[in-house]
Amino acid sequence: MRELSGEGGGSRGDAGYLHLTGTVLLSPSHTVPDVYVKDGLFTFRRPPGRPRRTLEGWVLPGLVDAHCHVGLDRRGRVPDELAEQQALQDRDAGTLLIRDAGVVNDTRWVQQRADLPRLVRAGRHVARTRRYFRDYAVEVEPDQLATAVAEQARSGDGWVKIVGDWIDRSIGDLAPAFPTHALQEAVAAAHAEGARVTAHCFAAETLDGMLDAGIDCIEHATGMLPRHIPRFVEQGVAIVPTLINIDTFPDIADGAAGKYPDYAAHMRRLWSGRHAMVRQAHDAGIAVYAGTDAGSVIPHGRLPDEVAALAAAGLGAAAAVDAACWAARSWLGFPGIEEGASADAIVCSADPRIDVTTLASLRAVVLRGEDLSRNPAE
Fold it and tell me: 3-state DSSP call for residue 272?
């Protein structure tokens, strides 16, 4: 069970306990009828006395957005006041655990707020000079990559983000940002610091170098080809497809077609193959996790849309929910609904393993034992 500094459970002085009842999903297939929340923690032993409130429905651990940017928008860094609003939007949509995928500013203050989602930080993106959004990343040349990655590993919470490819304007198309030898040194440097490495990758050619380097996770993965799949499986490399972000590719292509027709055509091909890629990856046993890419061009609070997109792409409802819930929590080292775990849960009005749309209208959100759905006057 993992806790970040300042993130322990607590009911902040509330008397009594919460009773969560109906169908409590401990995993995609294991259910119990009841769980209780006392002093901010889950327990399966009913506490004495009467509950202060009973919440009934389908009860799941809090959802996980595995690719999110609290503190960024399309312009880059945002003020802390706006970052707070972003985090609250995610929380109110049921996202109670976020894996940050790169931000400019130090967001450790989010981890000290009991009313905001848990946050696993990755520091700043590390990108090739002038090969990413302006003012987003630490920009380096290949011989500087390992040093920059090690520095970000030390400032984050066990993850580092490399921008693996972007448009190369000299050729007018997507191209890998770093040579394989530089990536190998960078991944080794991160691992030496105890951090895992994920990478933004659109194109097929980029994946070859990332796999050779021993990468831990790939964001987007739109260029995945049949030749890559056995290596992903053998090396245990996860993917976070960010399908609602990939749906922006046609607009990107339209805007680039006049000046960069090859790039535009490439982006359209990647978009058209997105569902087949996700389905083939899942069917082969590659771990697929839900991530929105909120904070760049995608608004916050849209994790239910990403889960629905994964289900429609071929995962089906149960596996898509797992990608944003139990499996994702385990991958990041956080508990679900377990005895003594911090009480982070959502309550649905129907079974999301059958109907993912129920995630879009939650009955209740419980974070660190606090029932956020209750009437403040109660």
Answer: helix
